[in-house]
Amino acid sequence: MIICETKQELRTFRKSCRGTVGFVPTMGYLHDGHAKLLETSIQQNDVTILSIFVNPTQFGPNEDLDRYPRDFERDHQLAASLGVDCIFYPSVDEMYTTESTITFDSGDMANVLCGASRPGHFNGVLQVVTKLFHLVQPTNAYFGQKDAQQLALIESLVEAYDFPLSIVRVATIRDNDGLAKSSRNVYLSAAEREQAPRIYQALVAGKKVYEECASVKETVHYVQQELGKLTAARIDYVDMLSYPHLKKTEHAKLYVLAVAVFFEKARLIDNILIERVNPYATNDVK
Domains of the chain (ranges plus CATH)? Predict the structure, then answer.
């Protein structure tokens, strides 16, 4: 396995690649969810490239940029054991060698869910993803469904600007008790870790509520009530939007029921996709 720390090293490696190239962009501190992305890429491509870069432009003031967990040696060992061909591991100065006045505007899709409380976050995500796509030039890029809003925005970016690659959605990987795998789970106390699985339980119960009542409003209200019972956490948001276009409607073919919850030192997100109950409803939106 090759480790590239500069863009030029990555370009040189990329020129040597033959066949299809799969790409998994991460911020490191890899867990089973990342492993699933990598395994899927390895199965589907001739070459797999992993990037590890904690991108400062997607962190706002008072967010956890400095605290974000990092352990490159651990990540290196996991990637090698899976059969990854190359790790791109640049520094911040290497990724952002010059200051640019060109900025990204993620649009209305970034003003809901996580974007509502993290202004500018998805501008930074699209900025770094664009740079990485140009550097890696992948055939396929792999993203987890846990970050549903991020995935929807990246799919929109690729479609709108004709990036010559395919985005592959990979289902959320969970612990046995249902908690979605996340690098930030290490911040949970024992008491918080005991309550955290109830996030997913509330989503699953919310899906059943929607299947019974076919009401987005009632479903959201139910999940809010369930999460409100968590004594160790507070709700950031609960919402149910069309997917992947992230619009408020009672007439979508597919919904994402999404939540974000604050614990003392961690903000966890999760979601579940729900198909519309009434297949004969009119005025469908995406």
Answer: 2-170 (3.40.50.620), 189-275 (3.30.1300.10)
pLDDT tens by residue, 137-170: 999 999 999 999 999 999 999 999 999 999 999 9
What's the mean per-residue pLDDT of the chain?
95
Q: What are residue 44's phi and psi, to 5 degrees? A: -100, -5
The C-alpha atoms of residue 189 and residue 176 are separated, in whole angstroms, by 18
169 is in an annotated binding site: no
Of 141, 148, 136, which is closest to residue 168 (Cα–Cα)? 141
30 is known to lie in a ligand binding site: yes
Residue 33 annotated as part of some ligand binding site: yes
Q: Which residues are catalytic?
A: 34
pTM value is 0.93
Question: How would you class 65 by CB atoms within 10 Å of its CB: exposed for 0-12, middle for 13-18, buried for 19 or more?
Answer: middle
* Residue whose tokens read 């409100």: 228
CB within 8 A of 73, min separation 6: which ones?
A: none
10 assigned to a ligand binding site: no
Looking from the CA of 113 toward its CB, the CA atoms found within 13 Å total 31
